[in-house]
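Figure 2 data, in text form.
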Amino acid sequence: MSCPKCESDEWKSASFVYKSGISNITLNTSTIGAGAGIDLGGIGIGGGMASSNSNGTQQSRLSLESTPPVEPKDIAGTIFWIIAIILSIIVGSAPSNPVVWILLISVCILYVKNLAPKYQKHLHTLLWNYNKKLSRWEATRVCQRCGQLYFPEDFIENTDNT
């Protein structure tokens, strides 16, 4: 399948363009300077040294456009532990009060029974959409002549003459 923009047959996969367009850079600079001077009041000598280090990542614009979809994160467990920590702090201030313990246990049960399954269903939908986008990204092509990103199946012409 040729490029829909310029009809070139030269292409690379979006994943290859993404990976090949990222460079890790490390820069090191060192400078040494010295000076001497004579004045009526005496002689002076001075010197100095400076160095600089920096590292980072450089990414081409085409690589940036070819970035893969971002995988959704499962935060249900994190939310649960944040709630548990907050409630344990509250319980810690009144350890002998059974009402506080009943409240803590009730909130945990409500979370596990009501909120967690809803979030898991939502996460399942997010993961399904992510896998669909990832599969599409893996099949996406980048034209080597004009830089157009395209998914071949979007431009397949119907050759059936019926």
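Caption note: Confidence is low (pLDDT under 50) at residues 158-162.
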